[in-house]
TrEMBL record:
Pfam family, one: Glyco_transf_20
Family affiliation: Belongs to the glycosyltransferase 20 family.
Gene3D superfamilies listed in its UniProt record: Glycogen Phosphorylase B (3.40.50.2000)
Matching CDD domains: GT20_TPS (cd03788)
First-level EC class: transferase
GO biological process: trehalose biosynthetic process
EC number in record: 2.4.1.15
Name the record gives this protein: Alpha,alpha-trehalose-phosphate synthase (UDP-forming)
GO molecular function terms listed in the Swiss-Prot or TrEMBL record: alpha,alpha-trehalose-phosphate synthase (UDP-forming) activity
Highest taxon listed in the record's lineage: Bacteria
Species lineage: Bacteria, Pseudomonadati, Pseudomonadota, Alphaproteobacteria, Rhodobacterales
Glycosyltransferase found in the keyword field: yes
Keyword Glycosyltransferase among record annotations: yes
């Protein structure tokens, strides 16, 4: 890469060395290459100034924050990004909330951000934009005359053609995405949906080299399944738990779930499936516990308040009906947990229960596998609807709408012989290693470097 790398994401990490998969990987990439990370800082409430503001430690690369007004927060972030695009991409058109103000806020923030980035970008720089908050950013940068490479990576599922109808007409994903050089998606199924969208678009053509021709430019669409920082996670999980009392309290058959409290994660059905498992188990002396860690997220959005109430009611009922004086079947923790402790909790859990209705990838599935003891691994029960299921086919795959099937999978997982657990673990672990997040960002950036937006003659004959 000749110029510098500019990463754009909704949030910017404020810690000198951020913890956690994706943020850590991007931090490491920028630390090696130098460059700029642009994002909004939750602590930075100033009204949007014309230029980006330097924040945090600037030693290895620069961190530049953009400000959001209260109106931007309501319309761009809570509104269009999280009450329109998020539900559409997660097949929940019924939860979409429409407002012209949302669209205006989304366009306003993307336009302003493009201007702010244009001030610091040179033509040989590469801009890597992350996620659904910024679909139109490349279009806005192109309007300003930026001719350099711009890549996009979507972390959440690419919507099905039928679901795109729930977007306002002006929000044309095809038009917006065509202004990038390379669109990265999580899975092959996402790529298929994205190509289907382009195929149905007047003026877009699929070229011989697999790229999309749109107007006088081309865009590449490819899958880059994201992963975790495997070595760090394995090493953390191996260290013994510091709190001996906690380790003793958590003995027995622990089933673990770890998710942001989001309606896409399928938590109510997970609780129901666990309740069904308790009801139907033949050995009543066997006391499995579900440890569900679900920190709050986007609590100002009504759909998130509703899911919280539903879960609290379900948890109360499940414990009321099944608990004994010395046994609480469901422990439901509504806050963040230190990642070191999280890795150890995964390791002691006999089952990792990951049952989203829709999920771009789901890193918890990969973290659970990486944390296991290879000599005595636990079992991953994984929704077929998670991107992770495309390659982790040796997990126990379940339909997250089918309570009975999930309850049976729990029984199977808790009774699985050692040899089968090891075989399944090894197959899943091979996939986790193959998608290590460091390699993911290298692969993406190298493909972006090789991409070319302007039409070349060898790609000219179209396949319709
Ligand atoms: P998320 O929807 O946030 O990510 P996921 O991939 O599971 O979903 O990542 C969550 C991360 O947060 C994991 O690293 C997990 O350990 C951590 N986490 C969750 N609950 C926690 C808690 N209580 N305490 C501490 N840490 C917690 C989006 C998409 C996914 C996609 C990722 C990455 O929705 O589909 O896999 O981006 O691309």
């Amino acid at each position: 890469m000749s110029g510098k790398l500019i990463v754009v994401s909704n949030r910017i990490p404020t810690a000198a060395t951020p913890a956690g998969g994706l943020v850590y990987a991007l931090h490491e990439t920028l630390r090696k290459t130098g460059g700029i990370w642009v994002g909004s800082d939750p602590e930075f409430h100033a009204s949007p100034s014309r230029s980006l503001t330097e924040i945090g430690d600037q030693s290895a690369y620069r961190r530049l924050a953009f400000g959001l007004t209260e109106l931007d927060h309501q319309t761009f972030y809570l509104g269009f990004a999280n009450s329109v695009l998020w539900p559409v991409c997660h097949r929940r058109g019924d939860l979409v909330r429409m407002s012209r103000r949302f669209e205006q806020g989304y366009r306003r923030v993307n336009k302003r951000l493009a201007q702010q980035i244009f001030e610091v970008a040179k033509v040989d720089d590469t801009i890597w934009v992350h996620d659904y908050h910024f679909f139109p950013l490349a279009s806005e940068l192109r309007k300003l005359g930026f001719e350099g490479k711009i890549g996009f990576f979507l972390h959440i599922p690419f919507p099905a053609l039928g679901d795109l109808g729930a977007l306002p007409l002006e929000a044309s994903l095809a038009r917006w995405l065509a202004d990038y050089d390379l669109v990265g998606l999580q899975t092959r199924a996402d790529v298929a949906r994205c190509l289907e969208m382009f195929r149905s678009e007047l003026g877009a053509e699929l070229m011989n080299d697999g790229k999309i021709k749109y107007g006088d430019q081309t865009v590449g669409v490819r899958s880059f399944p994201i992963g975790i920082d495997v070595d760090t996670f394995v090493a953390t999980a191996k260290r013994p738990m510091a709190d001996a009392k906690l380790a003793a309290d958590l003995s027995g058959d622990i089933v673990i779930g770890v998710d942001r409290l989001d309606y896409s994660k399928g938590l109510p059905n997970r609780f129901r499936a666990f309740g069904r498992y308790l009801e139907t188990r033949t050995d009543k002396s066997r006391r499995a516990s579900l440890l569900q860690i679900a920190p709050p997220t986007r609590e100002e959005v009504t759909a998130y308040q509703d899911i919280r109430h539903e879960l609290e009611e379900l948890a109360g009922r499940l414990n009321g009906e099944n608990a004994e004086l010395d046994w609480t079947p469901l422990r439901y923790i509504h806050r963040n947990i230190d990642r070191n402790l999280l890795a150890k909790l995964y390791r002691i859990a006999r089952v990792g229960l990951v049952t989203p209705f829709a999920d771009g990838m789901n890193l918890v599935a990969k973290e659970y596998i990486a944390a296991q003891d290879p000599n005595d691994p636990g079992v991953l029960v994984l929704s077929r609807m998670a991107g992770a299921a495309e390659d982790m086919t040796q997990a126990l795959l379940v339909n997250p709408y089918d309570i009975e099937e999930m309850s049976e999978a729990l029984t199977q997982a808790l009774n699985m012989p050692l040899q089968e657990r090891q075989d399944r673990y090894e197959a899943c672990m091979a996939q986790v290693k193959a998608t290590d997040v460091g390699r993911w960002s290298e692969n993406y950036l190298s493909a972006l470097k090789d991409s070319r937006r302007k039409l070349s003659w060898d790609s000219f004959s179209s396949t319709g």
